[in-house]
Design a protein that fits this description.
Structural class: alpha+beta
Strand content: 15-25%
Order of helices and strands: HHEEHEEEHHHHEHEEHHEEEEH
Oligomer: single chain
Largest sheet: 7 strands, mixed
Distance between the termini: 25 Å
């Protein structure tokens, strides 16, 4: 069963569950990516902090005690300082050290050839000297000797810490570390953080999805129960309609028909002056009979078959004609249909025409009925074509508020949907090319019979009178 409404698509419980799961997985992926990026940044920041702490300890414990003697010309302390720096450079983590003064002079460097040079003082070194600020960042090459970075290195981490020595001017201690070692440390920290972030998220989704599935199952059961109760209500309503229709047919209609026959027989024996009065009485009785028959058909179509559908649908459209709406009906020859299919077409036509009368504000309505080829499972045309009913109007079009009014006690479209789906057919509700609404119902020919060639194609004009057209019904309505 398919109902297509522009701007409104019906979503089943199963589809909603899949959407929920998809959104949950997407949210998990997005949060995971964000967590990985954030954790990576946090890990890199933590690795830089570790490099700063290492440099600060090196400055306080090694450089500060030995540098004054080395700068004053003590060969022993200079040798001890060189040996201490050499030992720390040996493991490959620390790659170069430089000590700057406030004038930009290199007071000490792991490369003796650089000592004594006066260069442009880096901003970070100046900040360390003036304000005691510790800083670190990633770089491709050192400030003093750009060629010191080995070709196999992926980059360097430079750290600047203030160097305070008694009776000496403030200086800045600059150290360079292999980025690969820092990156490994960052990856290690990342490996510790990711489980703490992702595992709770995954557990939360593992809890939410089964809960959503349970709620969806409960909704399905409630929907099935609602449909079952609705079917029971419909069955009771259907039986009551049949009873009332039968009572009308066997009671007032038959009695009025008898009165009409009696008037007809009586009129032949009356004097001429009284004949018009009897004729008026006969007309009133006949109109009452027709009114009751319409009411009977509206309650339930008694013994309705495919050959009676055109006339019955025309009678259903009579209230539209009475209000000035132009109604055109084109019905091609129909095959023999089972009672359920005929009743379904009758219900669809009645509900659609009632909606047109109540909501559409239309000036024209076209009704088209006939057969169309229907592909089977192998993609070939079925030898038993399906039967379709198309009702189109030029009114205001579709209004979402009028499509599902079950809360108000109106079950028109939902019941048509259930009825057509149970019969294996489709119901399509769309906006017409020129506006208005178009309802098309297609039901399978479950009897497997073909259209009777002797059945006349019927066209009913706005006046309600019918005739055989010169063209088939499909050509009449396009």
């Amino acid at each position: 069963m398919v109902i297509r409404v522009p701007g409104r698509r019906r979503i089943t419980v199963g589809r909603q569950l899949w959407v929920f799961c998809a959104v949950a997985v997407l949210a998990l992926v997005l949060v995971s990516v964000a967590a990985v990026v954030a954790s990576r940044l946090l890990a890199r920041g933590q690795a830089l902090k570790d490099a700063e702490r290492t440099t600060t300890r090196l400055a306080d414990l090694v450089i500060a005690p030995l540098l004054p003697g080395a700068l004053s010309g003590s060969a022993a302390q200079r040798a001890d300082l060189d040996e201490a720096i050499k030992n720390r450079l040996a493991d490959g983590y620390l790659t170069e050290v430089t000590i700057w003064d406030s004038t930009g002079q290199v007071r000490y460097d792991s490369d003796p050839d650089e000592i004594g040079k006066r260069l442009s003082l880096p901003d970070e070194a100046d900040s360390a000297i003036r304000s005691g600020r510790v800083s670190s960042d990633f770089t491709d090459h050192p400030e003093v000797d750009p060629d010191v970075a080995e070709s196999g290195q992926s980059g360097l981490v430079e750290v600047y810490v203030p160097l305070r020595i008694p009776r000496q001017t403030s200086m800045s201690f600059e150290a360079y570390y292999d980025y690969g070692r820092v990156n490994n440390l960052a990856n290690q920290i990342l490996g510790e953080l990711i489980p703490l972030v992702l595992v709770p998220l995954i557990l939360l989704q593992l809890i939410h999805i089964p809960m959503a599935a349970s709620w969806a199952s409960r909704v399905r059961r409630q929907e099935a129960e609602r449909l079952r109760l609705l079917e029971l209500t419909l069955s009771a309503s259907e039986r009551e309609r049949v009873r009332l229709a039968g009572d009308l047919h066997d009671g007032p209609i038959q009695e009025l028909a008898g009165i009409g026959y009696a008037f007809e027989m009586w009129s032949s024996t009356l004097p001429e002056p009284q004949t018009p009065i009897v004729a008026q009485l006969q007309g009133a009785v006949q109109r009452s009979i027709e009114s009751l028959r319409r009411l009977m058909i509206d309650l339930y179509p008694p013994d309705l078959d495919a050959t009676q559908l055109p006339r019955t649908i025309s009678e259903l459209a009579q209230p539209l004609r009475d209000t000035g709406i132009e109604v055109t009906i084109a019905v091609a020859a129909l095959p023999e249909l089972d009672a359920d299919t005929v009743t379904a077409f009758y219900r669809i036509a009645r509900e659609a025409l009632a909606n047109v009368a109540e909501h559409a504000a239309a000036s024209r309505v076209s009704i088209n009925m006939g057969t169309r080829g229907r592909p089977d499972s192998g993609g070939q045309r079925s030898p038993h074509p399906a039967v379709y009913l198309r009702i189109a109007d030029d009114g205001l079009g579709l209004h979402e508020a009028t499509l599902d009014r079950r809360a108000e006690g109106h079950f028109g479209l939902p019941l048509l949907e259930d009825r057509v789906r149970n019969l294996g057919g489709t119901l399509t509700l769309t906006t017409g090319a020129q506006g208005g609404a178009v309802l098309t119902a297609v039901l399978p020919n479950r009897n497997g019979s073909t259209a009777k060639p002797l059945d006349p194609t019927l066209r009913v004009h706005p006046t309600g009178q019918s005739r055989r057209p010169d063209k088939p019904a499909d050509q009449i309505l396009g």
